[in-house]
Amino acid sequence: MDAFDVVVVGSGPGGYRAAVLAALRGRKTAIIERAVWGGCCLNRGCVPKKDWYHSARLLAHTDTFANRGLVGSLAGDLGQAWRHQYEVVDRVRQSYRDYLRRLGVTALSGHATVKDAGTLSVDGRLVKAQSIILATGSAPVMPDHIAVVPDRIIHSDLLFDRPVPGGSRVAVVGGGIIALEFAYILRLFGKDVTWIVRRDPFARRDFSPAAMDVLKKGLMAAGVSPRLSTVRDATVGAEGVTLALDDGTVAVDWVLMATGRRPVTDDLGLEAAGIARDSAGFIVVNAYLQTNRPSLYAIGDCVSGPMTANRALFEAAVAVDNIIEPGRRTRTDRLVPEAVYSAVELARVGLTEEQAEDDGFEPATGFAAFETSPRALGQDDAEGFVRLVADMDSGRFLGGEVVGAEAGELIHMLAALPAQGGLRTLSQMAFNHPSRSEEFQNAVETLAAKWNLPGEIFG
Q1: CATH class in words for 153-259
Q2: Is 433 labeled as catalytic in the residue annotation?
Q3: Which of 182, 222, 218, 186 is nearest to 202 (CA)?
Q4: Which of 77, 120, 176, 436 has the highest local Cβ count within 10 Å?
């Protein structure tokens, strides 16, 4: 029987990082994967999608080329884009596996089931572990009345498994982040996109109404707007797919379903091992990411919370720290940034104004727009702003958001700030000029002046 200090189930971003961190801390580590190494994020999610998104943004700026002295035209080729992301993903996957080998992590291929809090079976092969981390991820949810039909009706995981279906007419079904992103990307690659949603996709509590307004205008300018309706039926024929909606029909060449995700926890043997799940199938954990069996941890999408690679990566470190030193760190999702990559890039971290009020703070906001930023103007990309949220009584930094180019990178400046003294850090930093990041300093200065926050944020 194989024996390890730490065994990780799942090789997505959370599982991979957990295995790496455990090995770096001197623990004998194994990682188990039953499908493609790298999980959804690498193979069918954030990595290939951001590859396409970068190309889409280049296409979006072609109307500024002539003024910049760039002569010629560009057109999107989604077939070549698919091949490019495939090469990128393959290269990253190889580097992941090479690094695991260099660290001495044992990689086991097969389906793992939990026998008890210290034993796993991998296709009948027993593996012992002092600690187990479940990082089994999530899978797409399809409506009960609509089935996958290759090259006609697919979900987002299947979009990267094989070359993109032919035809220019595409229906994107769903109002979440995945749909927001793919509706835009496909439109920029020249597809005629019908985006079907059951409710207003811009009525979100995680980003401010101002951020949603910028995103909505950007999508409309790109030729993407939601159609509020429900898909009642889908008929596949020789010429494509006909969708029956509440308010009529839509004929398209293929359909991309982005109608939610569920945790992958059904076939892990959790019930037999006495591991608790909630009514939605998520594994129940405490603040330290332990299940009701203290030596068994769970992280990422198989645990209730935002289904993002960002959270899985963060929780991997929390789980490993608690394995090394029990009780060292607690799960704090509000420290994890979230981002949207669509017609406008959005990113946020910490509390919104509404959440701050719910937590008993008196929120004050600071704002700086990119429309006067020399760097943004020089890039012909001045949409968006920086927005900070602080407590009016103490000057405590509570959260913030960035809307505009490179928001997903810029948000890390806020993610790294301590609550106490964070605004002072921004106010006293020296910044590269011209840069987009300067707007953080402008926002904190206007915040302090506008709301007469405690003077010590500058001192």
Answers
A1: alpha beta
A2: yes
A3: 218
A4: 120
